[in-house]
């Protein structure tokens, strides 16, 4: 089979090499799938750089999220069959940026028939992160105002749709007109182009000075610091990641004075400590997809040979919507 491998650390365009490899065999509790589609995610970029909390041994094939057809099942796997179309996380080092991949059976879920392969490959990480963040960690309520940063990105785009499905009023912050159009298409009630507007002032104006009840922040750095200027009384700032590259140090007395919560989310820990909640989340996401309330917005489909360029553009912030490797 052909697959992209990271043989040294650096920028995706520099370190990904196309290799001819044997089709992997499943270990106990694993399945091998023929990759139908694999969505590009920022963790793929960080793993290429050696900056992610998960650091596979070299060489490895990235592609942490995929949709595939099961072709072989390992020992100790129940409830799955050869031929099943599944989505979920890859078991590295055999990620989704190749013709075949390995998945832990516990993280392989039935792909909704309402979604095509590219959409299904984008339903796992971003939407599970959004569901756990908005519902379990922030307890988002109907009628509340949700501010979403990086609203045209992978996790941000999911948060817009999940926020709307929960009955919230959603303000999306993006960088540039093209990304603004994506946020509007996803259903954001108000869209802020951060290159042309101050999101703090927009939020205050849209909420009559009260601020956002929940702020969904996958960026960090200065974006987080500015967010503290427009968080509502008893608001919740959700820390999703640090795509901006800076891990902020903050004065905690500000949270005390303004009576807001700073809430962290490491979604991957639920797979370890509460896998039953991950299954429940997938069931709810499937129902939302089948009802038409959510659908990953795939803006670009890549051939196998285009993966390094597409992942590098994601790394550089030059993509909109979801960028997905689509198998032939």
Polypeptide structure, described:
Residues 11-325 form the Enoyl reductase (ER) domain. Pfam families: ADH_N (PF08240), ADH_zinc_N (PF00107). InterPro entries: ADH-like_C, ADH-like_N, ER, GroES-like_sf, NAD(P)-bd_dom_sf, Quin_OxRdtase/zeta-crystal_CS, Zn-ADH-like_protein. GO terms for molecular function: oxidoreductase activity; zinc ion binding. This is Alcohol dehydrogenase zinc-binding domain protein. The protein has 328 residues and is an alpha/beta fold. The chain has two domains: 2-123 and 296-326, Quinone Oxidoreductase, Chain A, domain 1 (Alpha-Beta Complex); 127-268, 3-Layer(aba) Sandwich (Rossmann fold). Helices cover 31% and strands 26% of the residues. The protein is built from twelve helices and 15 strands. It has helices spanning 12-15, 42-49, 117-120, 125-137, 154-165, 177-186, 199-206, 222-227, 253-258, 268-273, 275-291, 307-315, and strands at residues 2-6, 16-20, 30-39, 65-73, 85-89, 100-104, 108-110, 145-148, 169-174, 190-193, 212-217, 231-239, 261-264, 298-302, 322-326. The strands form three sheets. Strands 3, 4, 5, 6, 7, 14 and 15 form a seven-stranded mixed β-sheet that branches. A six-stranded parallel β-sheet has the order 10-9-8-11-12-13, sandwiched between helices. It has a two-stranded antiparallel sheet with strand order 1-2. Helix 4 (125-137) crosses helix 5 (154-165) and helix 4 (125-137) packs across helix 11 (275-291). The longest helix is centred in the C-terminal third of the chain and has 17 residues, at 275-291. The radius of gyration is 19 Å and the shape is globular. The two termini are 13 Å apart.
């Amino acid at each position: 089979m052909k697959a992209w491998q990271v043989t040294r650390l650096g920028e995706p365009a520099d370190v990904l090499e196309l290799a001819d490899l044997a089709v992997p065999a499943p270990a106990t509790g694993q399945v091998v799938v023929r990759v139908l589609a694999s969505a590009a995610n920022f963790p793929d970029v960080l793993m290429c750089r050696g900056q992610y909390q998960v650091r596979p041994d070299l060489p490895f094939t990235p592609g942490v999220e995929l949709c595939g057809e099961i072709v072989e099942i390992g020992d100790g796997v129940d409830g799955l069959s050869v031929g099943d179309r599944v989505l979920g996380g890859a078991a590295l080092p055999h990620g989704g940026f190749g013709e075949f991949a390995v998945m832990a059976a516990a993280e392989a879920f039935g792909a909704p028939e309402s979604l095509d392969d590219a959409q299904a490959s984008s339903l796992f990480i971003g939407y599970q992160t959004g569901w756990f963040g908005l519902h379990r960690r922030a307890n988002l309520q109907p009628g509340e105002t949700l501010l979403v940063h990086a609203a045209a990105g992978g996790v941000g785009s999911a948060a817009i749709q999940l926020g709307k499905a929960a009955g919230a009023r959603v303000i999306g912050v993006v960088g540039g007109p093209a990304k603004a159009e994506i946020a509007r298409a996803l259903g954001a009630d108000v869209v802020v182009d951060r290159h042309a507007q101050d999101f703090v002032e927009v939020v205050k104006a849209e909420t009559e000075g009260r601020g956002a009840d929940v702020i969904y922040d996958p960026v960090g750095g200065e974006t987080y610091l500015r967010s503290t200027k427009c968080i509502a009384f008893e608001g919740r700032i959700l820390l999703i990641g640090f795509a901006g590259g800076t891990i902020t140090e903050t004065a905690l007395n500000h949270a005390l004075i303004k009576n807001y919560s700073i809430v962290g989310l490491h979604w991957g820990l639920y797979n370890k400590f509460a896998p039953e909640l991950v299954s429940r989340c997938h069931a709810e996401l499937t129902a939302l997809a089948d009802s038409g309330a959510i659908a990953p917005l795939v803006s670009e489909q890549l051939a196998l040979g285009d993966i390094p360029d597409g992942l590098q553009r994601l790394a550089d912030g030059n993509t909109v919507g979801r960028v997905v490797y689509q198998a032939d």
